[in-house]
Amino acid sequence: MPQGRDLERYHALIERVQELEGRRGTGAEAPDIRDRMVYGVLGLSHFVSPGLEHAVGQFRYHLHQLAALDFKKPAAFIQAAERGRKVLDPKKKEQAAKIERLRIMVEGRKQAIAVMTKHRAELVEELGNIAQYIGENLVRIERVCEASIVILVGLQVTKSTEKQVIASLKDQFKEQLLDARQRGPVTKQDLENAKRDYVAISRAVADLIRDDVYTLTSLYEAIYEHVHRYAGAIEGLLARNKAGQDDLTLCTELEGVLDALVRDFRFKLKTVALFREPAYENVLREKRREILDHLFTLLDRDRRTRKDRRTHGEPRKYASPIPLASERRAAKERRSARGRRR
User: Fold this and answer.
1) The pLDDT of residue 328
2) Tell me, what's the pLDDT at 137?
3) How far, in whole angstroms, is CA 291 from its chain's centroid?
4) Structural domain range at position 35
């Protein structure tokens, strides 16, 4: 369940992405074009995923346990008991019994401190593991965004989608003319009107493809920059952990970074007017939905077929924020901040 308001907004995004994905192919009313773009990219990039939400929630839970460990009270009791034992006379029966009771109570406090010390070490290790794994998966999200941007730029350069859609439009107009001829004679004016409509719709479709590809590319770039920033912040804090910084202070700083990761994102969507030609509104609306479905199919197909290049390291016990089978990379294989794209 969402932990605090920082995760409520992120949880709502997850529900929205899952809702739109569940409605595809069910005959339900098509979502708004802007929603389709934003939530489609958020889902395919894996920035919005139940796994990442769960990881951040688990980090908070373990940090709460770490902060709740109280070493001061038992330590203070031991000091007070030791001072009390010094003023007591073991030769006196009543005071000897009190000394023994204090000894037993001190031993109990020492055992409690030993248990808490071990638990603290386990919590610190697990918090470090969770933070490291989130950071590694943010790098994976970066790679997904980079690959998606390459695909979209390639489509823009080759105009393959544009050629495919316009070719289908041409076939559609030919079929309409053939149907019209079967119903009766087709005049020269009818042919001129069909040619005019074909040219106008083809130009509008070409513009929509160009604008929508640019919009999707911008969204992927925004997600890349966001996760890149926080992956670097996590890596920097983990490096400080190796330098011996106080565990609770460091983990609290890591919590702040993770909270900002799922809270402080602003992905602006700039889309052009849906229809430049009111007369072709229905046709362009349908074509635009088909184009978006085609683009997302290409992006999703690349994600599913692209192999993970990490082949070394032990399997990670903690669930991956990205719902794909993966392995933890060895420390030497992780990209440093210097090696990342800026």
Assistant:
1) 41
2) 94
3) 25
4) 5-157+203-328
**CA 320/CA 7 separation, integer angstroms:** 18
How many CB atoms lie under 10 A from the CB of residue 4? Answer: 11
* Number of C-beta neighbours around residue 27 at 10 A: 7
Q: Are 178 and 142 in contact (CB under 8 A)?
A: no
Instruction: Provide the whole-model pTM.
Output: 0.75
Q: Which of 205, 236, 213, 229 is nearest to 131 (CA)?
A: 236
Of 218 and 187, more confident: 218
Looking up tokens 């700039």 gives: 270
Residue 254 and residue 12: Cα distance in Å, rounded? 23
Instruction: Give the pLDDT confidence score for residue 243 in this predicted structure.
Output: 55
Give residue 330's pLDDT. Answer: 42
175 inside domain:
no
Q: Which residues neighbour 136 within 8 Å (Cβ) at sequence distance 6 or greater?
A: 328, 329, 334
Quote the number of domains for the chain.
1
CB hemisphere CA count around 167 (13 angstroms):
6
Q: How far from each other are the two terminal CA atoms of the chain, in whole angstroms?
A: 35
Residue 183 included in any domain:
no
pLDDT digits (tens, 9 = 90+) for 65-123: 999 999 999 999 999 998 888 888 888 888 889 888 999 999 999 999 999 999 999 99
Which residues are within 8 A (CB) of 194 and not within 5 positions of it... i.e. 6 or more apart?
173, 176, 177
Q: Give me 155's structure tokens.
A: 């489509």
How distant, in Å, are the alpha carbons of 103, 108, 172, 280 from that of 199? 95, 87, 13, 12
Q: Are 20 and 36 in contact (CB under 8 A)?
A: yes
Dist CA 284 CA 287 (whole Å): 5
CB atoms within 10 A of CB 185: 7
CB 49 within 8 A of CB 323: yes
pLDDT in tens, 279-335: 677 778 888 888 888 888 888 876 565 544 333 334 445 544 444 433 344 444 444
The pLDDT of residue 118 is: 93
The answer to whether residue 310 sits within a structural domain is: yes
Q: Is residue 290 in some structural domain?
A: yes
